[in-house]
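ok posting inputs for the S-adenosyl-L-homocysteine job
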Amino acid sequence: MIEEHLRRGIGMTSQRTRERLIQRLRDVRGIKDESVLEAMRITPRHLFVDEALASRAYDDTALPIGQGQTISQPYVVARMTEALLADGVPERVLEIGTGSGYQAAILAQLVPEVYTVERIGVLARQARQRFRDLRLNNIRLRLGDGYEGWADHGPFQAILLTAAPARLPEELTRQLAEGGRLVAPVGGREGQQLLLYRLRNGELEKEVLDYVSFVPMLGGTE
Ligand code: SAH
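and the output
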């Protein structure tokens, strides 16, 4: 369905810059999972940012999406998605921090069911509209506080945080299924470690994947 949308009204430039981004992710940044690269190749990132920024949508950088928030850097999206799927495709994924909806759109092409929570109403509404336009019908979005997760639909085989808490929220670890994976940037405003947690025999194993810079995870809703 996304392919169809792509053919409409999008110039060759965007197609070519998009291919260049995928090449960079593969050859320079070392992303190996071809299914992740393919999802990123066919997903129109320019539709997840303001029109004024569309020409920069296939640069490997984070971009502002309003409300003081950002759409993550493509490399970071690819890295987190790859880490989340490394043991096989989970049935359900929970994302905390919908933002533009781009990360959820990538997941929706790889995983049967995506649940995503956003605390800012304006961003949640815009993301919901994008999911509708792109016919991404396997994403469910909730306006709410991600510190609470989404217990009704848990446990999840995979959980992804795209905003940084100071430390891993306990409630989210409770919604992680045995054998599941949780990827999160953890730390303060000056920078965070991108962590991968695996729940094995009831114990969380931790691995540092990278060093990243996400917006902070905040409580409550706006
Ligand atoms: N995944 C997004 C990245 C958005 S930036 C994308 O692909 O565009 C992080 C988002 O997390 C922001 O929209 C911010 O409002 C949201 N956020 C921060 N704290 C949150 C919380 N406690 N619950 C839900 N969303 C939160």
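notes: Residues 69-72, 96-97, 99-100, 102-103, 117-120, 123, 145-147, 162-163, 215, 217-219 surround S-adenosyl-L-homocysteine (CB under 6 Å). The beta strands are 63-66, 69-71, 92-96, 113-118, 139-143, 156-161, 176-188, 191-200, 203-212.
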